[in-house]
Design a protein that fits this description.
Elements (H helix, E strand, L loop, with lengths): L1 H6 L2 H18 L3 H13 L7 E2 L36 E3 L2 E7 L9 E4 L2 E9 L4 E14 L9 E6 L2 E6 L10 E7 L7 E9 L15 E4 L4 E8 L22 E2 L2 E3 L5 H18 L4 E2 L2 E3 L8 E6 L16 E6 L7 E7 L2 H14 L7 E3 L24 E2 L10 E3 L6 E6 L12 E10 L8 E6 L2 E7 L10 H7 L5 E10 L7 E9 L17 E4 L4 E2 L7 E4 L2 H7 L12 E5 L5 H18 L7 E4 L10 E5 L7 H4 L6 E4 L2 E6 L23 E6 L5 E7 L7 E6 L4 H10 L12 E5 L2 E6 L4 E4 L3 H10 L2 H32 L1
Parallel strand pairs: 13-15, 14-16, 14-17, 17-19, 32-33, 32-34, 34-39
Antiparallel strand pairs: 1-9, 2-3, 3-12, 4-11, 5-10, 6-9, 6-11, 6-12, 7-8, 7-10, 18-19, 18-20, 21-30, 22-29, 23-28, 24-27, 24-29, 24-30, 25-26, 25-28, 31-42, 35-36, 36-37, 38-39, 38-40, 40-41
Helix pairs in contact: 4-5, 4-8
Length: 803
């Protein structure tokens, strides 16, 4: 299983990988090239890696011998950049893929500092493939102060030296490109590629932290890998492989195939499986192109069929109950099919549920589910990926203990991902409380060392890291709290500002240690500092009620809200056109994948219906899909939404929101609402894609979101925007129009509210938005109190006069 494989010691994994590599080399008749490579390596006194001339920067990586480095300087890079092959390009005997360092997660160029600076990326190889050729297209620059005779750059793969690059003075300070061939035997399942600067600016005494010791590796550098497939038998125990492999950083694209026009029950089963794979894909995103009556010509796919179905190119096995099976496709198709089968829609959904929550118990090429007990009903806001809102949450529940520790002066920040419900009401609060416990290395003398806390890119607080100085505090107290390793513990209460808390927030805790200035001839500074966050530190959302102004497409785009309020989408109905097509099915499956990625749970309670039957589900939130002219609800609900359409005719309700800065995410009372200022009607043969949100006309307090696109480019634009993390923050308000990679907010809609506040809390909040009403209420309250006192005093006076 995948989880077990990841926990094996690296040495055992590398040995197994090497054995598989050797067997594959024999099977694909590469013995001769390997023998040549060995001969070239023995005869060459330099590194086994090869530095190519940048003029051949796009040269394919081949597992054949290459000439040794000649010492000829590389050409400075001007406007020429590495050409990137399409991910997954098929080549004879395997597949070739080129990904940049940015694709591997390096958002910024890699900085190398000091006499021994090192930085790099991590990359992995699918479990069903092995690397047969690797070329690194390296783009870098370095300091003019480096001495070429005693300075160099080293390329390391899993600690092995793949190449040593000179730093000639004539190329210093310019952008340089080199190709480095990497021996594929260095590459295992999980890998680290690092570039190390061995830098010196003088042959005499030098300062190891001198600012002239630098090199920069561009994140446009790329790794060009050629793969060959590894043969294995179909086995459910290997799921989710080969349909999804967590080592693969590419976007998941997995076709879903139906034997004929699918029924609502079949679509609900498909939605469960899509959400399962979507939760696995996570940040990568997932596409599920839908097909009917035929499987794709090549690659993996998931097939949904009843026992009596006929599907071209697929032999449906005998079905005696809910069944899950994996079958091999023909050699030309190069893939496998995951079959989800049943005798009726109910059995099909049972098979899908078993796949979503019980895949770890499956084994063999086929499994029939003989008994399946329904799980306990989900509760609101209990999605596995979301922070609990009913109790404090330990950091140990959100990250591995090893990920909460940072070592060294140049260590990255400790990062904790926070998926937060978007409807938390934080009005007039200090923010989200965190009980932060941590350990730090005590500084030998007072300096600028600190623990810096931020959320995303927003600064929160800086906590000073104190120094040990016998002249400033009691030594007995010092030695009682400082451990023998030189670390001490601290605890602080901090508050994360409400404006920084988004559904996809990331808490960053950076231990910054000031490097002591040793000066020249003093040697290197020991890199022996550490910072660690206690896993028992907690973050607490339990004190905030759930209350939010809608429509707000930002909540939908970034967290699937309000549908993901229930992790299984048991209060959601997806409304398709009365005559849906493959594009409608694909968009539906994409959305189910996004919901699964948000919650981390399959959508086992989702309901799929058509426009004609929508009234039966008035008590649910509605996710409406379809194009104008094909989705009747766009006309029926026209009075309640800022868009209506019928065929080529479309009507928009527009406001001036596009001319104002729009950031409603954490407004105290939701978005600033104003009525629509204009209506625009037009006729167009091909409209842009758009998203719109509004209150459900079928029941007050329920929500509706419509995803509207026509067949063709607008379908592609909508799907791409929903999976583009750069565009999602731009989707806000009540209606957003998408054209290519441009998102325009055109309306903020009419507000309605979901959630609940206590009476006192609601009264304070409501009156805060209407100061005149507050004054009027205060005057009325004063008059009422005065009248009561007047009556009471008159009664007392009358009684006294009578006596």
């Amino acid at each position: 299983m995948m989880g077990k494989g990841s926990s094996r010691p690296r040495s055992r994994g590398e040995g197994k990988r090497a054995r598989r590599f050797g067997a594959l080399m024999l099977s694909i008749a590469l013995a001769a090239p390997l023998a040549s490579m060995a001969t070239a390596k023995a005869d060459t006194p330099v590194s086994p890696a090869v530095v190519y001339n940048p003029g051949t920067i796009a040269q394919p990586a081949l597992a054949v011998p290459v000439p040794a480095f000649s010492g000829k300087p590389a050409t400075p890079l001007t406007s020429r950049m590495p050409t990137t092959a399409d991910p997954g390009t098929l080549v004879p005997g395997g597949r070739r893929q080129t990904l940049t360092f940015a694709d591997y997660g390096a958002l910024d160029p890699l900085q190398l500092r000091g006499t021994d600076g090192q930085n790099g990326i991590a990359f992995s190889v699918r479990g069903d493939e092995v690397v047969t050729g690797a070329v690194l297209h390296l783009i870098y620059s370095y300091s003019p102060s480096l001495l070429p005779s005693i300075s160099q750059l080293k390329v390391l793969v899993n600690g092995e030296v793949a190449a040593t690059l000179p730093v000639p003075r004539e190329q210093a300070g310019t952008l340089v490109a080199r190709d480095v061939a990497i021996d594929p035997r260095f590459i295992t399942e999980f890998n680290h590629l690092n570039v190390q600067l061995i830098g010196h600016y003088t042959q005499q005494c030098e300062d190891p932290s001198n600012s002239t010791l630098w090199a920069t590796v561009s994140n446009a550098s790329s790794l060009d890998l050629t793969y060959a497939s590894i043969a294995s038998k179909p086995d459910l125990a290997a799921l989710p492989q080969p349909f999804f492999d967590r080592r693969d950083v590419r976007r998941l694209e997995l076709p879903f195939v139906f034997a004929g026009k699918p029924s609502p029950g079949e679509l609900e089963a498909a939605g469960m499986v899509a959400s399962y794979f979507g939760s696995l894909a996570g940040y990568r995103g997932a596409l599920f192109p839908a097909q009917t009556d035929a499987v794709p010509l090549a690659g993996n796919a998931v097939v949904f069929a009843l026992s009596d179905a006929k599907l071209a190119g697929v032999e449906i096995p005998p079905v005696s109950g809910p069944t899950i099976a994996v079958v091999e496709r023909g050699a030309a198709a190069r893939g496998r099919l995951l079959l989800v089968l049943g005798r009726d829609d109910n059995e099909l959904k049972i098979a899908a549920k078993a796949l979503g929550i019980g895949q770890n118990t499956l084994s063999g090429a086929s499994a029939t589910i003989t008994q399946f007990s329904e799980l306990q009903p989900r509760r609101p806001y209990d999605a596995p990926n979301w922070l609990r809102t009913d109790r404090p949450v330990r950091f140990g529940e959100l990250a591995e203990a090893r990920d909460l520790t940072a070592n060294g002066y140049d260590a990255d920040a400790v990062r904790v991902n926070l998926r937060v419900p978007p409807d938390l009401f934080m009005w007039q609060t200090m923010g989200v409380p965190i009980d932060l416990a941590y350990r730090y290395t005590v500084r030998p003398a007072p300096d600028r060392s600190s623990l810096n806390i931020s959320v995303n890119n927003g600064f929160v607080q800086s906590l000073r890291i104190p120094a040990a100085s016998a002249s400033t505090f009691d030594l007995a107290h010092y030695f009682s709290r400082v451990l023998p390793d030189g670390t001490a513990a601290a605890r602080h209460d901090i508050y994360l500002p409400p404006l920084l808390i988004t559904p996809r927030a990331q808490l960053r805790l950076h231990f910054y240690y000031d490097i002591p200035k040793t000066g020249e001839c003093q040697g290197r500074v020991l890199d022996n500092v550490v910072g660690a966050i206690d896993p028992n530190s907690t973050i607490d959302l339990s004190g905030f009620p759930h209350y939010m102004a809608l429509p707000d497409l930002a909540a939908f785009a970034n967290g699937g809200f309000p549908f993901t309020r229930m992790a299984d989408l048991s209060q959601t109905a997806v409304v398709l056109p009365n005559d849906p097509n493959s594009a409608d099915y694909s968009l539906y499956l994409l959305e189910m994948g996004r919901m699964g990625a948000s919650t981390g749970y399959p959508v086992m309670g989702v309901t799929v219906t058509s426009a004609n039957d929508v009234d039966r589900f008035a008590d649910k939130d509605l996710l409406i899909l379809g194009a104008p002219g094909r989705q009747p609800l766009l006309q029926r609900f026209a009075k309640h939404m800022p868009f209506s359409g019928d065929g080529d005719a479309r009507t928009f309700q527009l406001s001036d929101v596009a001319f104002r800065v729009v950031d409603w995410w954490h407004g105290e009372q939701g978005p600033e609402r104003s009525p629509a200022r204009a209506d625009l009607s037009l006729v167009s043969a091909n409209g842009d894609a758009l998203l719109t949100g509004f209150e459900s006309p079928l029941k007050s307090g329920r929500s509706a979101v419509a995803l509207i696109s026509a067949a063709g480019q607008s379908d592609a634009d909508l799907s791409a925007a929903l999976l583009d993390n750069d565009l999602l923050p731009s989707i806000q308000g009540a209606m957003a129009v998408i054209h290519g990679r441009t998102v325009t907010v055109t309306s903020n809609g009419e507000a309605y509210y979901v959630g609940h506040l206590s009476p006192m809390h609601y009264m304070r909040w409501a009156l805060s938005a209407h100061p005149l009403l507050l004054v009027f209420s205060a005057v009325i309250a004063a008059l009422i109190i005065a009248a009561l006192f007047y009556r009471a005093l008159r009664s007392l006076a009358a009684r006294r006069l009578k006596d």
